[in-house]
Amino acid sequence: MDSTSPSSGSPFDMVSGALGRYMPGKGAAAAGSGDEQDDSAARQGADADTAPGRPEQILGAVSLDRDLRITRCNLAAPVFAGVEAVTGKPFVDLLPPWDVPTVTRRLRQVLETGEPHVARVQRLRRGDGSELVVSMSILAAAAPQEGLTVSLIAMARRLHLYAAETAIGTSLDIGETAQSLAESLLAWGDVTAIDLDFAVWTGEVVTGQPQERIRLRRAALVPDRAWPDGYVTPGDDLPGDASRLLSQAIRRDDPAQALVIPDREAIERVLGSPRLVRALVPGDQAVAVACVPLVLDGAPPVVLGVAEVWRRADRPFEDSELFDLQELVARTSHHVDLARQHQREHTQVLALQRRLLPRSGGETIETASVYQPATPDSAGVGGDWVNSFPLPDGRTALVVGDVVGHGLGAAATMGQLSMEARALLSAGLAPDEVLEHLDETVSLLDDAESGLAAGYSALGSTCCIAVYDPVSHRVALASAGHLPPVLMPPGGPAAPVAVRPHPGLGAEFALREPYGVYAFAAPPGSLLALYTDGLVEDPALSIDEGIGRLADAVSTVHPWDSLQQAARRLVSVLAPAHRRDDVTLLLARMIGYRKGDTATWRLPARGDAAARARTLVSALLGQWRIRDNTRDSVLLVVDELVANAVRFSEGPLTVRLIRTGHGLLCEVGDTGNGRPRLGRGGPLDDGGRGLYVVHGLTTRWGVRWTDTGKVVWASVAR
Predict the structure, then answer these.
(1) Among residues 60, 37, 1, 26, which one has the least CA distance to residue 147?
(2) Is 120 in contact with 130 (CB distance < 8 Å)?
(3) How far is the CA of 259 from the CAs of 241, 267, 284, 297, 434, in angstroms?
(4) CA Rg, the chain, in Å?
(5) How far apart are CA 245 and CA 332, in angstroms?
(6) 619: pLDDT confidence band, cut at 50, 70 and 90?
(7) 364 near 394, Cβ under 8 Å?
(8) CA-CA to 383 of 20 to 30 Å: which in 54, 467, 506, 708?
(9) Pairing status of strand 382-390 against strand 598-603
């Protein structure tokens, strides 16, 4: 069966085959020549379509060989008059010079991949120097032919309005929306530009009443070419006086009207300065401009910006053209506003996301993180988050989580869980206890009133919490349904941490189990990688293979490598080419305290424990050459903490002193479960006065809970 038969091949093959039959026989030198029968048919079609009462023919077609030269063409329709398509000449000879690189790249891309490039708004040069705007589609030639088939549809005004509105509404990116509008307006001019209110560009709220001077930013400019110095290009702010154009284009009480400046002399008179002329007028030739405001209907109307259409002065704007321009801009203004609202949400979500990313490590740990959303729009910004922060008692918390879903709902839940985890860890709770609280929070967020009724559910979110002790060089870790971290000891190689799987947060009550805490050694120089599933999930691999690839990649990180560069390299190597989920990675290199900066003593809980602790600590402070006033403060704090532990607990005491970069950290551990609190005793009541002494001599103090009791810590500045 013929490969171009409508009953076989892809739709594009059928279209390409139909276009091939539409063109004259091989060897035609130009439109309307070549095979007599085909030529006659083409002329008859053109004559029929241009007969009274029939619509004008707007379709043309060109065949190209693999060198992108014209082999056949049918541009017989009167609308293509002056477009000189000559057999053997490069197709790009029909294009304006500034479009040649882009179109050449598209042509070769279709040749290599076979995937069509459809409905590109393109300009063709005529012999008299004017240009014709067409919708150009590039298809691979139907078998047995080789090369390309290029269809050209002259953009009839009403057809163009419909096609333009459809194209402009396909993106929620404000830059892409402005670019689509500028490309559509090119059918009426030689250069088009979209200038938006800065508040619209950044996604802020726009007011109904425009100000006297509106800050405008150029959002789009077509065609893409090299512009002279001083000319405003996309991303640049227009000079302040340029808002004069917008203020004149807007009628406060009437529907927005286009403002037409018919020639260069009038433009220079309106702009008033050579600097503004250089910034706004695209070229030295005589030009005219139509400025059409982008306005949302309302009382009063909301001004979003202005569209500029520039053309040669010898082609004045007709009333029908201005009507079409205003209609297109009016139809698409709401797309610009939707993109503005989307930009606002996108900015809010990313601000929250970045707020949760680690800022830097500390003196006992070095951290680096990478976060990449699945897509650049806010719909792709999900609930992946990582955080690392020092705890008040000198340890460091590393947290990674993956909240179900994308967008603002997931980001809000992510922020709530992240802040709650930080507060609970800073209050001294162990990782497993923190996860229990987060589990309850997710369940509460998903109740009928605040969760499902709002159209969002966080059930099944995951979280992993690791707490690094820089003195013992150990990590305590708890996980709620999260993938296991990867640990590389100083000698390597890296391997996943053995963590027993646990249901995600918010599981049904009957399925809930106690969270386990897994402790493992992390000597100085160890590297710990925490991540979300977007980094290791690949449709071509099992999840275990993906984690194995991550472990192999972490093994290549050398101790002298920059941690941030290493994190970026790992993500670039491991992240799937076509991501369906966010990618998040946190690397932590353990440093810890030097052995000479810490000391630990175990004392019996007896009456002389405080005196014994003062003697041991005093000798160590002398070795460290601590100043006398700091030494006295530390001795008083240790004395009060040990005395308080002997009075309210049983079992042996542990006294630990740590020399940090900013001061001294005193810790006293016991087997009691009571929480020391500052009380308001009477003038003759001695109870609780020791804690007031500690409170006055330290920068911070607090309690953390252990499996065997508690540790009261206090920080003294040097």
Answers:
(1) 26
(2) no
(3) 17, 12, 21, 18, 63
(4) 36
(5) 20
(6) very high
(7) yes
(8) 467
(9) unpaired
